[in-house]
Amino acid sequence: MDLTLSPNEQAFRDEVRGWLAENHPGEAPRGDDASFDFLKQWQLKLHEQGYAGLSWPEEYGGRGATLIEQAIFGEELARAKAPGPANVLGLVMGGPVVIAHGTDDQKKRYLEPILSGEEIWCQGFSEPDAGSDLASLKTRAVKDGDEWVVTGQKVWTTLAHEAKWCMLVARTDPDAPKHKGLTYFLMDMEQEAVQINPLHQITGEAEFNELFIEEARIPDANVIGGEGNGWMVAITTLMNERAGLGAGAAASMKIALGQLIELAKERGVDSDPLVRQKIAGLLIEVEALRLNAWRGLTAIMKTGIPGPEGSLPKLQWSAANQGLTELAMEIRGEEAAAKDSDWTYRFLRARANSIEGGTTEILKNIIAERVLNLPKLR
Amino acid sequence: MNFDYSDDQQAIKRTAHDLLVARFKPDTVRELAEGERYDEAHWDELCELGWPGIFIDDQYEGQGLGTVELVILLEELGYTLAPVPFLSNAAAGLALQHAGSDEQKDAHLKGIATGAERGTVGTLKNGVAELVPDADTAKLIVFLDGDEATLHKAEDCDIQPVDAIDQTRRYSRVVPGGDGEILPGDVGAASDRMAVAVSAELVGASQRVMEMAVEYARDRKQFDRPIGAYQAVAHRCADMLRETESARSATLWAAWAAEAEPETLPLASSMAKALASDAGWNVTSSALQVHGGIAFTWEHDLHFFLKRAKVDGSLFGSARRHRDRVADIHGLGAAA
Q1: Can you list the alpha helix ranges (DSSP code H) found in chain A?
Q2: Residue A21: is it exposed, middle or buried by C-beta count within 10 angstroms (0-12/13-18/19+)?
Q3: Is the model's pLDDT at A244 over the cut of 70?
Q4: A161 and A167 in contact (C-beta within 8 Å)?
Q5: Counting beta carbons within 10 angstroms of the beta carbon of residue A84, is it exposed (0 to 12), middle (13 to 18) or buried (19 or more)?
Q6: Is there a contact between A327 and A260 (Cβ–Cβ < 8 Å)?
């Protein structure tokens, strides 16, 4: 057992840390368009340094980093309070899916513009009637010559208005069992048949969108992984979304805890026994999250299979972030009612943490069924 | 970065697991618990294997391994709820190893490492140690009192048995007597390791009880379905995994830090004990609920684990006390 970084890992951390100190882009400007341009510029810089597509194999323009290095990068980014890249969905989900399931032509066509941020990607999975039960989705794709004609509705689509490509899962065989009749497409967002509506959320902003798709056309060449294999391809994407995020999340949470402690001191409640117990409880939970994440990475690297502790960080992160922001609100008392406050924003935004990227209930189902081998819950 | 056991550590774990599962079958544990006794033959066997001295230097006839190896044994001892005076003796060994003078080590560590002359540790409050494990059969007792520790001969102390809920271990109320010797070394380094040691036992007990609950949830049918197919039951089990694995991660981290990064040990040990104390109680009480009425009966084994977990939770500092320490370490104001 050795919880220190190896010389190579340490060298990588020092390199990233040094580079971030020199190249930190500063704070993002306000306003959606300005802030997105800023993130695109930032991604270009990351790309020039080889930090975009860190996990991608070198032959596809990535760095072939180990899971540990990915986690180190996530930690350092959080530690430096540097933003993530603009094309986050393309880098974390789109690229890995094309690499795993795409044809040579598709790899040639799509990968480089993802890395450079020239083409932004979004994700069309969830639908109004298909959230946790994703495989029940109803968006239809019907073959018409060498094209598919797609009609349906998608929801929770981040960056839809900036995106060139949408990772779209649609039903291509309504007669097949629900997991079997799905196909994974890359849909060009630049067509009239795709209408984008911003979705206003409880924070007042619109991070997400709804897509209304009315006979959009997708060439057959844009099917990924073959007709009828959409579920399998989509699952790979979701796994990519979860792997290795824990370490970075824990690092961000540590920064937030530091701010919470400052707040408690500022308001003179840091000697209140109840506040002390609650803050200490959060510090401990975040440390447990960090440790479980690293233990999980070690398990994957050794065996190729995530260990039971690897399924926990998302659950723990959402609970800890909600607890942390709730405590900040409690400490701030009546002041917390004002909209114009970062704590208040974070408190409201944290409500989504236990829903987005897999609800707490679904994650517990997964732990129960796949880790503990309890009987199927349905 | 390798957050897993080495091959040697893996081998120790396997050997300990197999031996203890064979030796401490539920019926054996029950018989000893109901008789409120140990079987010295069990202790002799562990001594022959060199377990009591696993973390003690070889000059005192220990095995010269570290806290991680100690924690591996304790997790398996907790898993089987082995009724042996191992934890108490190890705590005394940790006290002498880190806070004892050379003379004190020469006089006592060999007896602890070989198991021939056992020790134990009590925590003083107003001059009394209310709950000292295995004081009745120990030769020497270390008393922790704030940052200080004193060593007493057991025969000089007033030792009264406590009729404790945890019948798998002997407990006493002890008033120190005779001339105590101050342990001049680093008492904190010793007591932090004791907290890690008992955390490991709690992790083992939690793991075992989680397995019992999961197995029961698979087998037990109500309304024509296994109860584990109901989300309310399944989610309890998922929470057991979360708490057990978090406590395990923190305990391993703290055990590793004890040798590799001692400056982290105060924080790591308190985080581990807070998580393990909470996990021990939450997992065993939730498992009782999953089992339903059967686990409320004396004849079911779960209550032995539940009671051990409750008592272990307060040994060497409760979750509340360790959270308090985490708050101190992070510079929060002194509690009003």
Answers
A1: 7-23, 32-48, 67-79, 88-89, 95-101, 104-116, 230-242, 245-266, 273-303, 313-332, 342-349, 360-366
A2: exposed
A3: no
A4: no
A5: middle
A6: yes
Q: Could you identify the residue written with the tokens 């979860």?
A: A242
Helical segments of B292-317, H only: 302-314
Please say if A190 is a catalytic residue.
no
Q: pLDDT by residue (tens digit) across A278-312?
A: 999 999 999 999 999 999 888 888 887 777 777 78
- Determine the residue of chain B that is closest to A69 in CA distance: B1
Of A6, A292, A363, the CB nearest to B245: A292
Q: Which two tokens stand for residue A288?
A: 């447990």
Contact B323 A287 (CB under 8 A): no
Q: Quick check: B217 and B246 in contact, CB under 8 A?
A: no
Q: Which pairs count as long-range contacts for A126-134, CB under 8 Å and 24+ apart, including other chains?
A: A126/A154, A126/A155, A126/A156, A127/A152, A127/A153, A127/A154, A127/A155, A128/A153, A128/A155, A131/A359, A132/A359, A132/A361, A132/A362, A134/A169, A134/A234
Does this model's pTM top 0.90?
yes
For B180-213, write each residue's pLDDT tens digit.
Answer: 999 999 999 999 999 999 999 999 999 999 999 9
- Assembly ipTM: 0.97
The token pair at A313 is 């960080």
Note whether A374 contacts B214, CB cutoff 8 Å: yes
Mutate to test the interface with B, among A266, A283, A327 (most CBs of B within 10 A): A283
All residues at 6 or more sequence positions from A29 whose CB lies less than 8 Å from its CB, including other chains = A35, A38
- Tokens (6 digits) for A22: 């020199």
Nearest to B52 by CA among B79, B21, B88, B28: B88
Own/partner pairs for A267-271, CB < 8 Å, 24+ apart? A267/A331, A267/A332, A269/A331, A270/B332, A270/B333, A271/B332, A271/B333, A271/B334, A271/B335, A271/B336
Q: β-pairing, B148-153 with A182-188?
A: unpaired
Which one, of B252, B260, B240, lies nearest residue A292 by Cα? B252
